[in-house]
Give the backbone structure.
Amino acid sequence: MSLLLVVLLALVWEGAKAFGSSVGYTLNIGGTPLDLTIFNDTQLPHLGDIFGSFTEPAQRNGAPLYQMLFESGLFTLWAALRGFLMGGLIGFVLAILFAHSMLLQRGLLPYVIASQTVPILAVAPMVVIWMGRMGATEWSVPMIAAYLTFFPVTIYTLRGLTSVPATALELMQTYAASRREILFKLRLPNALPQIFTALKISATASVVGAIIGELPSGIQSGLGIAILNFARYYNQSPPRLWATILAAGLLGIFFFTVIAVIERFVVRWKPEVSE
């Protein structure tokens, strides 16, 4: 199905370009001209040109674009991974606290939700400045990635921890199980599917956060600065920017796939633990 969607997208992409070229990038609808210049080669390069740019030099007499993007992707992935771990840990701890204290849940959960209404582009420069003053500029990008990561982990983990069957919870309490025993033997196994759903969402979100965080940080590595540089010279070589965007998308898919593979090995023992 995924391959079919990719093929369909490619056909739509090239079909739109062919249609725009055939009508001269102007289409009259009811006497009103519709501008289709977005489909010309400057705005929307051919897919062949985009894939071909991977083997061309990223800069004059420089290394091929694919090599530069691979190195930049590793830098961004490392920042995203650190942000993913930090945000995941924060979200997990908050979810456990909220699951065991209705007072904390009512008092703090609205602020957790409200934190996600603040545009990340407004938060990123402030985080960079704060971390720079503390002498930890290299952690500014992971912090921004963690900002996008902790929220889904908090919400989904809390839902999993609190949705345990009432009969199972009553049985554990009947045997005088402690809160710790209930957490590790009942709540966590029950929450595993929800937790991994959150981790898969957070995996892609951490990559987005890392790329956004690289823009105001002044760091000269990573996919964020590559996108910014190629956007500045977009008219000279549009395929390079599209190739960089494609590389960023593939990085997010890769991270998502890694978490999905781990889920297949971990969640399958859930029924045994629940018993």
The radius of gyration is 24 Å. The chain has a mean pLDDT of 86. The first strand starts at residue 26 and ends at 29. The first helix runs from residue 2 to 22.
